Amino acid sequence: MRRVTLWAALCVCALTPPLSSCRGRRAAPRLTSASGSAQAQAAPARSPTPIASASPSPATDPDRALVLLAGGDVDLSRRTGQRILREPSLDPLRAMQPLFATADVRFANLESQLCELNGVTGSPGNPLVFAGPPGGAAVLARSRFDVMSTANNHAWDYGKPCLVETMDRLHAAGIQPVGTDARGEDPMRPVVVQRGGRKLALFAVTAIFNDGPLPKHEASAYVAYADIGALARRIAAIRASVDWVVVSVHIGEEYLVVPIEATRYVLIATADAGADVVIGHHTHTLQRVEFHDGKPIVFSLGNLVFHENSSHPWTGWSALARVRFADGRPPALELCPYHLFDAAASPLDDQLRPAFVSHLDAISKHPAAARRGPLSADGCIAMLPP
Fold first, then answer.
1. SS (H, E, C) the chain
2. Which tens digit of pLDDT belongs to each residue from 323-363?
3. What CATH number is given to the structural domain containing 155?
4. Reported pTM
5. Domain carrying residue 247
6. Number of domains in the chain
């Protein structure tokens, strides 16, 4: 949440080795400029290029080996945390479950700690310090998450006790946290998920930390820092024992719809470090997809369970990244768009999709940006190499 200066991303670059209204009927925000300016501009008069409908759903694709569904930032604190306390059965992703059911592995970034604070879900003295209640773990389990990144700028909001409790709550709910270590020994340790005889390794690291440079903070023993050189060594060490590697990096400037160059350099370096897919979090807005040596990079997946920032309306629209891994082929990525109402996500219908497509086209004007491909039967847009 905190708008952080570029020190974190620039530090990571220095560490990088030379690696080759009503729900379902809300009005769409006006298009932002391709430069990522927060000032909205009027949408172009012409309609976006139509999306052809051709690609099969991964759930029915006989050639698939493993499907990952990756989501953006999940905040179970503050208003949502109070709702969980009142309504323990809260299910903000219920409308997304048909999409969740198409995946073998479900992953997102948990932006809030989960711990017992006697009903408190945010610091009364600092709006940028918050945590969700213990019941948040059941909310995540209800959505069938398998792995959650806990490496982000809020990982230490209520200190080590809350970090440890968060990990314990996730484990008890059958969810694997990645990017933190309760013992303070190896926060960069990956989670390896096995499905159908195939192994997927997930790493999570953060370049953003709210309490100053993470490497100089006591939290560095518990929260994985985005040291790309160290990450490259870890990926090399595990590479022979897994089929694919996915890395989540918490990085970027909040509310921009186009990544800054420092972010771009770090995420490309992450792909060069050995990741097959790179996923960014932190900006609270969807940013473009690029391909680097055939590897998809999503610069930011925006918000998944989060209240929209009224000053930045595209914080209320985003997409899941559905990645199909198959032997002998590069990963295939789709964006599955949705919009948020009261921190609950719903897939886009035919009336809302054109606004999203126009915005996606507007933020994807870069030589390396992915181009739009066919629309799947369940509303996901194939993102193809340029």
1. CCCCCCHHHHHHHHHCCCCCCCCCCCCCCCCECCCCCCCECCCCCCCCCCCCECCCCHHHCCCCCEEEEEEEEECCCHHHHHHHHHCCCCCCCHHHHHHHCCCCEEEEEECCEECCCCCCCECCCCCCCEEECCCHHHHHHHCCCCEEECCCCCCCCCHHHHHHHHHHHHHHCCCEEECECCCCCCCCCCEEEEECCEEEEEEEEECCCCCCCHHHCHHHHCECECCHHHHHHHHHHHHHHCCEEEEEEECCCCCCCCCCHHHHHHHHHHHHCCCCEEEEECCCCECCEEEECCEEEECCECEEECCCCCCCHHHHEEEEEEEEECCCCCCEEEEEEEEEECCEEEECCCCCHHHHHHHHHHHCCCCCECEEEEECCCCCEEEECC
2. 999 999 999 999 999 999 999 999 999 999 999 999 999 99
3. 3.60.21.10
4. 0.87
5. 7-13+58-330+342-384
6. 1
